[in-house]
Amino acid sequence: MTRKIAIFDTTLRDGEQSPGASMNTEEKLVIARQLVRMNVDVIEAGFPISSPGDFKSVSEIGRIAGGACTVCGLTRAVDKDIEVAAEALKTAGRPRIHTGLGVSPSHLRDKLHLTEEQAIERAVHAVSYARKFVDDVEFYAEDAGRSDQEFLVRIVQAAVRAGATVVNIPDTTGYNMPWNFGTRIADLRERVDGIEDVTISVHTHNDLGMATALALDAVMNGATQIECTINGLGERAGNTSLEEVVMAIKMHGEALDAHTDVVTRELTRASKLVSSITGINVQPNKAIVGANAFAHSSGIHQDGVLKARDTYEIIDPADVGAAGSEIILSARSGHAALRHRLGELGYTFADEDFDDVYNRFLEIADQKKEVFDEDLEAMVQERQRDVKAVYTLDALQVSCGDPLVPTATATITDEVGATHVVCATGSGPVDAAYKAIDKVVAVHGDLSEFNVKAITRGIDAIGEVTVRITADDGKIYTGRGADNDIIVSSAKAYVNAVNRMIQTTRSKEGK
Ligand code: KIV
Ligand code: ZN
Predict the structure, then answer these.
(1) Whose CA is nearest to atom 8 of ligand 1?
(2) How far, CA to CA in Å, does 185 sit from each of 151, 191, 227, 290?
(3) Best of 8, 10, 14, 47 to mutate for ligand 1, by most ligand atoms within 8 A of CB?
(4) What residue ranges define each of the domains in the chain, with the CATH number in brackets?
(5) Are strands 463-471 and 445-454 parallel, antiparallel or unpaired?
(6) pLDDT tens-digit profile of 242-276?
(7) Which of 10, 116, 229, 309: disulfide with 44, CB 3.0–4.6 Å?
(8) Residue 296 labelled as part of a binding site
(9) pLDDT in tens, 370-409
(10) Which residues line ligand 1 (CB under 6 A)?
(11) SS3 451
């Protein structure tokens, strides 16, 4: 049997640190459920002291994960951080506190103003203090990738003696090359007493496009936990991409003497979910989950793949959940077929909600000959996005053309149930719709990005619009909307962004 490599997902913590990727608690819970379904070993659910919203997310995720996986909260090596994380993690069946500090010369000198001895003292205190609250404590040596190896050995040794159960060796700035990162891990294994009884974790960033290679090199040299994110989201150029390391280990398990327990057929869904919720599109040529990852366009390649798939494909698309479904859903399909297919896709609904879901499905099916899995995913995600919407767009009518002045009439319901019918003109149909919506909503944001893409197939495809609006305090909020009518998608996306702005502000205030 090969070594088990634990997959530590930090999409909800480091991933959320991507510009524009902030998520509210509801959205984090949707992703956390998917992570549980994928069978990851650890979910880093947030940084509890950073805001009441993060505290709530860690606590709620601890509740839904139960004993299925470890739930982890990040802290600095500061007592108050550790106390707050311990409090947030009380709901978790398997809680872990992730604490640590910078260890490279520049972090010690310029950020922390600590000598090496003071840093060791802080690390020992933080680990032993965290152990008073939970049995599982992970110590991170931030910027280990640029640290002095002698000092790294000393501080890791001290953390292990203080009771760390996991030691995390991050390449925080993505500076390393595969040929010098694994050697650090091998050296720690050789020189730190008792390291054989703790898990060695690696947390690599992608500044030079090396994150996956570094993580695998670390595994070859003895690491047994990888910290990663869906779609490689994360600070700057991102973190190690979960789907890449998991599939690389699956394809090269023998050479690496490694396996993971991740359910790989869930990878594509996880990728779409994260992209939909954060509004950050996946590049089409992204390994494993990009739209082109299994597309063959040249005649020679098509000919080869038709003769034998593995001439140009190393992964069976079905293994990552990218294969199409056999059930054809249309306006003639009943409740049972829809419930069955949604169940296969991992979505279940209470009976009282299902009529609503079915009615929305019929609306889509009326406009399309065939409803594909992507339509269903878009439909469910749209529903999830609208949970606790402050404003709901009930109807939109737009007249435009040459020489008409674009005019929009919108019907919007607010959270107390009042209906507003508003009308506005604009420079184009979308502008008119947004101006009409602005007449009702109580907040203001400047439109800073507007993107349209077809997310399903055919001339009657569902078009998804992503917008980013910038609030007066400079914060960016992303909204998405999907519909067969692009103007309606645009209006839904705008209302969604406004709802997020309001929900995020409320969640940060702990409301
Ligand atoms: O990149 C990093 O070093 C981190 C730590 C906080 C683990 O994200
Ligand atoms: Zn990081």
Answers:
(1) 14
(2) 14, 10, 15, 31
(3) 14
(4) 3-278 (3.20.20.70), 299-371 (no CATH), 386-509 (3.30.160.270)
(5) antiparallel
(6) 999 999 999 999 999 999 999 999 999 999 999 98
(7) 10
(8) no
(9) 787 778 877 887 776 655 678 999 999 999 888 889 999 9
(10) 14, 140, 142, 168, 170, 172, 203, 205
(11) strand
